[in-house]
């Protein structure tokens, strides 16, 4: 994915608030480093919408364990099949369009489907630093505890097989802004110069990347890509073949 389009809310607030200072305040204030209080601003996240992948995912099967049980006796034999193996599922979320304020963004992202949420380590709430991608991982344990009966003169090959699925799709998340932002200016001696308090409706109303919803709230659409690889099921495949005559007692 190409470099993300990152909208810096802090820069927007600095530019907006600076316009309310008079010429004497601008001369005295540290305009590049105002104190921005975000505590009265609230962000509400809508549900993510996912576009259908261009190519339908194709599940892939992997053999995690195999064993051969041979019976060269004149009577059926029963063998224990016990094993445990681990695989790693992963999900990477990256952004093509997002915003930041301070050093990071906090985002709530609903998963593409419940299977991905359960098996890939997908997290709905995460903090992403400056628009970079983030990968979640989860260890999955696959186990078998069974018995296999092999007829006389035969051998049975047992394979523990897991099926992995994948997902690669684009998503959009609507973000709605409410509340006010307080910007305080000081001079180099840390003395108070001026304070600007404004509603987010006025600050973000016509800024790049923002629209307005039917309630008049500034709305920003975060866009990105979600790539996941995850196990979905296991099976034990048994293949029975006759032994060569010289191996049978």
From TrEMBL:
Pfam families given in the database record: ETX_MTX2 (PF03318)
InterPro entries tied to this protein: Aerolysin-like (IPR004991)
Superkingdom field: Eukaryota
Protein name: Uncharacterized protein
Organism, scientific name: Elysia crispata (lettuce slug)
